[in-house]
Design a protein that fits this description.
Blueprint: E1 5-11, E2 24-30, E3 38-47, H1 51-56, E4 71-79, E5 89-93, E6 99-103, E7 108-110, H2 126-138, E8 146-150, H3 155-166, E9 170-175, H4 178-187, E10 192-195, H5 202-209, E11 214-219, H6 223-229, E12 233-241, H7 260-266, E13 269-272, H8 282-294, E14 302-306, H9 311-320, E15 326-330
Parallel strand pairs: 8-9, 8-11, 9-10, 11-12, 12-13, 14-15
Antiparallel strand pairs: 1-2, 3-4, 3-6, 3-15, 4-5, 5-7
Helix pairs in contact: 2-3, 2-8
Bound molecules: NADP nicotinamide-adenine-dinucleotide phosphate.
């Protein structure tokens, strides 16, 4: 290893609401040495994930001195297990840092010939898998369903929008900006999209787009967006609660309209899920997602920030909605030979 220190980002103060730059600090520590059964990796791409904001409020999930957790795609530098070799590309929960030592069984091997390695954090990773299982296993979409997706232009949402279109659904996105509306409709083939942030008429426009109600609501955000969608549910609607990003920074959960009576009357099914519930079926889903990407049926868009020092800015930007598609941070690569 030619670099001498491991730079990492830690939390120095627990954010109230949206994090700010000064909540984070860069620390330098020795590069870890892998123990038997462990693998030393150099991180190449970091995934900016909304759940990390939730973790920041919970000392048990994220002690203050801890490196900010998060998924990464990385190159193996040294391996103390025969399953991996130097130069292999892997994905795992490796944190916001240059180097990490991880047990071999916590890493997934990535084949750089299949697709750009960054997609292992997006459409061919957690985001694509979450969309896949949320739609097919939780919401159980059918052709001609009207599917409404919140945070539709983000990583999970954009994958869900495309998969639902491929299944013959009518897809309506809820998103934050005109640029994202155009992306959803022009690039991803959504039937319509509405701007919840800047269009005061977005709720009535959504209702116009769903004349027979919402058969499936793929919810990434919760809060006032969901409060507007629930009254539009059709009879026997299915709601997949994927994420509640509007709530992650709140110290106390907000109260809104009480819609359980509405769920009863419409015989709706509301189900929360974690993508890890479906881990035994990841290989089949990744096979389908990879085939879709390689055939040009699925698109992958990424918003990439450069440099570990800019990870806090990228993370805050993602929470503010500045990303289109998957928000990543690309780290400087001291060994740029092998990876695309
Ligand atoms: N269940 C699971 O296993 C699982 C796995 C992965 C992710 N998730 C969840 O899925 C959701 C999307 O994750 P992602 O990684 O794909 O992130 P993402 O959608 O790429 O980025 C987050 C987006 O959320 C929107 N947003 C932020 N604050 C909001 C608010 N107060 N109200 C409405 N929208 C808001 C922003 O888009 P706009 O411009 O549209 O506001 C932002 O771009 C998150 O809630 C995440 O926790 C769940």
């Amino acid at each position: 290893v030619s670099e001498r220190v491991n730079r990492s980002i830690t939390l120095v103060s627990r954010p109230k609401g949206l994090p700010i730059d000064s909540d984070f600090a860069m620390t330098e520590r020795p590069i870890p040495r892998p123990a038997p059964g462990e693998v030393l990796v150099r991180n190449l791409y970091l995934s900016m994930d909304p759940w990390v904001r939730s973790a920041m409020s919970h000392p048990s999930m994220m002690p203050q001195t801890m490196v900010v957790p998060g998924d990464a795609v990385s190159r193996v530098i040294e391996s103390k297990h025969p399953h991996f070799h130097p130069g292999d590309v892997v994905q795992g929960l490796l944190g916001w840092q240059d180097y990490a030592a991880a047990p071999w069984y916590a890493l997934r091997r990535i084949d750089p010939r299949v697709a750009p390695i960054s997609t292992a954090l997006g459409i061919l990773g957690g985001s694509g898998l979450t969309a896949w299982f949320g739609l097919f296993a939780v919401a159980r979409i059918k052709p001609r369903d009207t599917v409404v997706i919140s945070a539709a232009a983000g990583a999970v949402g954009s994958a869900a929008a495309q998969l639902a279109k491929l299944c013959g659904c009518r897809v309506i996105g809820i998103t934050g900006s005109e640029e994202k509306v155009r992306y959803l409709v022009d690039d991803l083939g959504a039937d319509a999209a509405v701007r919840y942030k800047t269009d005061p008429a977005w709720q009535s426009k959504l209702a116009v787009q769903c004349p027979f109600g919402v058969d499936v609501y793929f919810d990434n955000v919760g809060g006032r967006v969901s409060d507007a969608v629930f009254p539009m549910l059709s009879a026997r609607a299915r709601v997949a609660i994927c994420g509640q990003i509007a709530e992650y920074a709140r110290p106390i959960a907000a109260t809104g309209p009480r819609w359980l009576g509405l769920v009863l009357g419409r015989r709706a099914r509301v189900q929360g899920f974690l993508v890890t519930d479906f881990a035994p079926w990841f290989p089949q889903a990744l096979h389908g997602l990879t085939a879709g990407l390689r055939a040009g049926l699925l698109r992958s868009r990424e918003t990439i920030e450069q440099g570990l020092e800019n990870a806090p800015r990228a993370f805050i930007g993602m929470l503010e909605g500045r990303n289109v598609g998957k928000q990543l941070v690309k780290l400087d690569d001291p060994f740029p030979r092998t990876c695309p």
